[in-house]
Design brief:
The complex is a heterodimer of chains A (about 280) and B (about 300). By secondary structure, chain A is an all-alpha fold. Chain A has helices at about 1-35, 35-40, 55-60, 65-95, 100-115, 120-130, 140-160, 165-175, 180-210, 210-215, 225-230, 240-270. Chain A contains twelve helices and no strands. Chain B is globular and about 70 Å long. In chain B, helix 11 packs antiparallel against helix 12. The longest helix of chain B has about 40 residues, at about 5-40. The chains are: A mainly alpha (about 280), B mainly alpha (about 300). Chain A: This is Carbohydrate ABC transporter permease.
């Protein structure tokens, strides 16, 4: 009994250790984001700011470059989400409802494409987009993001389609509904949660993406949030760390919400291994 | 098959292709084609610029790579990084997954916390850890000072000897959630009866872990470590933000090296060749790893 209690205690200590390791960097960024410039240059920084201030957030919001970058990111991510779902929806339906070898081929391609470093992909992409004058445009970047998100979106959506009992569609057909009516009245409402989840996934993958945005967009006016934030790094003086921390935290909010939304599924394991980091 | 059925099957097939086309076409044009072209570029002397002639040069790029010290250094650092991150990440993630599988209090909270790094874009993770490692305003140096180890204060990312370990630690932090969640799912898939049977037979916790948990978890372990290794070897954004390959190239991962070759110096062909080499290396390493594991499983 005593040995068991020691084990339990050790387990809690280990768990605490993990939580500190995982949580502390985040707490520190949070703390930094509330510090006025004066406290940033203190010889011994403290975890809790002496005079917490919202100035850094105000500055991050009003900083012209960050605001524009956030708007760019929003545009690109929304377009990616909408386009991905529009393109994936019919294909996912076909993959789920008809027997075709293409499904296996598609999944094989997803796995295979993981092997290739982005540099192999991005140079030809750059050349192809330049041929059609889409380099340094949001449209070009969105196209790349859609293709990038598509395999997983397809896989996710066709799972949702499979969960809709085929009998429902057959019953509607027996009642004299046309195929289109069946899709609109029966399938569409049941598929709504799947569409939401898939578009969120596409949105987040575009929102967080860095490499393609770095290479494919040259003008600072067009840069997305990660690229703009990364540009601040290195040239920031110590006094600018506060706004940088605040901006970074704000930029994380969408994906935090997304993960909060998916959290239950993720920890129950049903989606485990499905989302690429 | 009757003619009617055959006609129906054919119309079905047309429908399927029509439905799949909008998804397949972009993937073909912007994923399959570029990849093939990228592989081909690795055998040419392609350079940046609109009107530059490109010619097929065979294995010239690879010969040049062999005698390129910077490539060898990037390659070595890439291997240290990829193996270091993957192995430590796995060990730590397994520990956390085992804990989260126990009936502990705060388990729900801990599971959410374990997901947080996953929800953060790599660029933000990089910025955050720069704040932690900051020589003056950083958390780490301050903790060392408070802990009475002022002598250990360091410019963690700027010092030749600590830059790579510091970056590896961030890599572990950023990648732990995926690995933990996958392992946790694997643990929950191990049949309870096996554990109970082993306990009845008098097996200790450690014996049960070795002879019940590990063998049942093995397929998951192989899958996630392989994927982790691929992702780590090809990773870019995190280290780009943390050190941009510095100081003095001490954290110059192969991907960073290829990026510089391609977009700073415009050597597209050379960079693509480097990409090809990376694919071959990854495939070779995975082949060795998977063969050994499979042989162990069959032994």
């Amino acid at each position: 009994m005593k040995a068991r209690r020691t084990t339990k205690a050790l387990q809690y200590v280990a768990l605490l250790g993990y939580m500190v390791f995982l949580g502390f960097p985040l707490v520190w960024m949070l703390s930094t984001s509330f510090k006025p410039p004066r406290e940033m240059v203190e010889i011994h920084p403290t975890l809790v700011p002496h005079n917490p201030t919202f100035d850094n957030y105000v500055e991050a919001f009003t900083e012209q470059e960050l605001g524009r970058a956030a708007l760019n990111s929003l545009q690109v991510s929304l377009a990616t989400a909408v386009l991905t779902v529009l393109v994936a929806l019919p294909a996912a339906y076909a993959l789920a409802r008809f027997k075709t070898r293409l499904g296996t081929v598609a999944l094989g391609w997803v796995l295979l494409s993981q092997l290739f470093p982005f540099v192999l992909l991005v140079i030809p992409l750059f050349l192809i987009l330049r041929q059609v004058d889409l380099v340094n445009t949001h449209a070009g970047l969105v196209l790349v993001y859609v293709v990038w998100a598509l395999p997983f979106a397809l896989w996710m959506l066709q799972g949702f389609v499979r969960n809709i009992p085929r009998e429902l569609e057959e019953a509607a057909a027996v009642d004299g509904a046309t195929r289109l009516q069946t899709l609109r009245r029966v399938v569409a409402p049941l598929l709504a949660p799947g569409v939401v989840a898939t578009s969120l996934f596409a949105f987040i993958s575009a929102w967080n993406e860095f490499f393609f945005a770095l290479v494919l967009l040259k003008s600072p006016d067009l840069a997305t949030l990660p690229v703009t934030l990364a540009r601040f790094v290195g040239v920031e003086g110590i006094a600018r760390l506060g706004p940088l921390a605040a901006g970074s935290l704000l930029a994380t909010v969408p994906s935090l919400l997304f993960f909060a939304f998916l959290q239950r599924r993720l920890t129950s394991g049903s989606l485990a291994g499905a989302v690429k980091g | 098959m009757t003619t009617v059925a055959r006609a129906r099957a054919r119309s079905d097939r047309t429908t399927v292709y029509l439905l799949l086309l909008p998804a397949l076409l972009p993937v073909l044009v912007l994923s399959v084609v570029p990849l093939l072209r990228g592989i081909y570029l690795g055998f040419t002397d392609a350079r940046a610029g609109r009107d530059v002639d490109t010619s097929f040069t065979g294995i010239d790029n690879y010969r040049e790579l062999l005698s390129d010290d910077l490539f060898w250094s990037a390659f070595r650092i890439g291997l240290v990084w990829a193996f270091g991150v993957t192995i430590l990440q796995f060990v730590l993630a397994l520990g956390l997954a085992l804990l989260l599988d126990q009936p502990l209090r705060f388990r729900g909270f801990a599971r959410v916390m374990a997901l947080v790094p996953w929800a953060m874009p790599p660029v933000i993770v990089g910025i955050m850890w720069r704040l932690v490692y900051h020589p003056d305003a950083g958390l780490l140096n301050e903790m060392l000072y408070r802990g009475g180890a002022e002598g250990l204060r360091h410019n963690w990312l700027g010092d030749f000897s600590t830059a790579l370990p510091a970056v590896i630690l961030v890599g572990i932090w950023a990648g732990m959630p995926q690995t933990t969640i996958v392992l946790l799912a694997g643990l929950q898939g191990v049949p309870r009866e096996l554990h109970e049977a082993a306990a009845v037979d008098g097996a200790s916790a450690w014996q049960r872990f070795r002879s019940v948990t590990i063998p049942n978890l093995m397929p998951v372990v192989i899958a996630i470590t392989s994927l982790d290794f691929i992702w780590n070897f090809n990773s870019f954004g995190l280290v780009y933000v943390l050190t941009a390959g510095g100081p003095g190239g001490r954290t110059m991962l192969p991907m960073l090296f290829a990026y510089e070759e391609a977009f700073r110096y415009g050597n597209y062909g050379y960079a693509a060749a480097l990409g090809n080499v990376m694919v071959v290396i990854i495939v070779a390493l995975l082949a060795v790893y998977l063969r050994r594991r499979l042989r162990e499983a069959n032994a």
